[in-house]
Design a protein that fits this description.
- The protein has one domain: 3-Layer(aba) Sandwich (Aminopeptidase), CATH 3.40.630.50.
- It is 28% helix and 28% strand.
- Strand 2 and strand 3 form a beta hairpin.
- The longest helix has 17 residues.
- It starts with a strand and ends with a helix.
Length: 211
């Protein structure tokens, strides 16, 4: 099972989730989570669920107590002081002994590298095709949760104007679903170092077969 998760506190996450429901065949089920309906569809031979949390998305360390997925995709806002319109992908977790934004100290989630690469590549393709003024980038790992389940964030940012942008939210939704449909497994490496927006690692993911 695959879980897509958005926070009701997150304008961008809810915007992306709305696009997922409206455009990608997710239907309301009888199941609820946090008193909100869970949506579902089949993707290949797996069931995909879309659920909503009342917590901030970074504070969902306990999510696997309620769902036991093989992959979690967090639909989320991205925020930055610079305010550059950005679509980004990263693995959650904390590489230091601090957990300021959720998760556990000194623990990162399992990285679904091939799904992340496909999401990033599809974002870049759609941004170019639709002539949208957005950067596309991998980010470094910098917030929770810290999970033993493969997990990734697909984000829309970096200010309220972008969080409300339906076209950009659709790109994120389309990219995530396209990645979930794709069974390609790419050669995988670990990227260490670099700035918060990993230009070199992003370029490698977009221009080579490496995830």
């Amino acid at each position: 099972m695959i879980l897509l998760l958005a926070s009701v506190k997150d304008v961008a996450g809810m915007n992306i989730a709305k696009q997922v429901i409206q455009l990608h065949g997710f239907e309301k089920t009888s199941r609820t989570f946090n008193d909100k309906p869970v949506y579902a569809r089949r993707i290949g031979n797996q069931q995909a669920l879309l659920a909503f949390t009342n917590k901030e998305i970074t504070e969902t360390q306990d999510i696997t107590e309620f769902f036991q997925p093989e992959l979690i995709v967090f639909l989320s806002r991205h925020a930055s002081r610079a305010g550059t319109p950005t679509l980004s992908v990263h693995t959650p977790g904390n590489l230091t002994n601090q957990a300021v934004l959720g998760g556990l100290p000194n623990k990162i989630s399992v990285s679904p590298a091939s799904k992340m690469k496909k999401t990033l590549k599809t974002m870049a393709k759609l941004v170019q095709e639709q002539n949208l003024d957005y950067a596309v980038s991998y980010e470094c790992t910098h917030h929770g949760p810290s999970l033993d389940t493969p997990a990734m964030f697909a984000e829309l940012g970096s200010t309220l104007a972008q969080w409300k942008d339906k076209k950009a939210a659709k790109v994120v939704a389309d990219a995530v679903i396209e990645a979930l449909k794709d069974s390609t497994v790419y050669p995988t490496v670990i990227g260490i170092g670099g700035p918060h927006y990993n230009y070199k690692f992003t370029k490698i993911a977009l221009t080579t077969d490496t995830a």
